[in-house]
Amino acid sequence: MAINRVITALLFVLVLARVELSTCHVLKGSVTCLDCNSHYDLSGIKVLVKCNQVKKLAMATTEEDGSFKTQLPSDAPTSSPSFNCLAKLLGGSTQLYASRNNMVTNIVKARESESYTISTPLNFHTSCPLSKKDAKCVAPDPKIGSSKTIDLPLPPEWGLAPSSYYIPFFPIIGIP
């Protein structure tokens, strides 16, 4: 009886030794504000991570100091991620200004094992870094392309919906 228990325990240990535990590939990085003071709260900024030939995306949210940490996306939990991965600065609760060169960066393997980092810093401004006359930072004129609807006053006794629901509709009559 004791030999059966020892053999069972030995087989159980051998089976567990063969099982490969899923490894987690972690991306660690940070964002930097170029025109902020040193006490600026960088929390809540979203960073998107996309790897080549992987359908899933990963989203990271920055901490107060601008650092973020997320798992690299992969289709299978035990598969290693593709080495062609990108991180993109998406935005935050306030308007951010960033050049196209500073919005996207490659992901490279860090010196630590199973850890990854961004190759170039993700930088942004909180105000327009260009001159005020430059059209790239000026908001579009709200008068052009306005989508205001016309609402004709209808008596409430009629029980109809607002006229803006009916006015844009032009029925085509006479086509069989």
UniProtKB/TrEMBL annotation:
UniProt name for this protein: Pollen Ole e 1 allergen and extensin family protein
Domain of life: Eukaryota
Signal sequence segment: 1-17
Alphabetic keyword roster: Signal
Alphabetical list of Pfam families matching this protein: Pollen_Ole_e_1
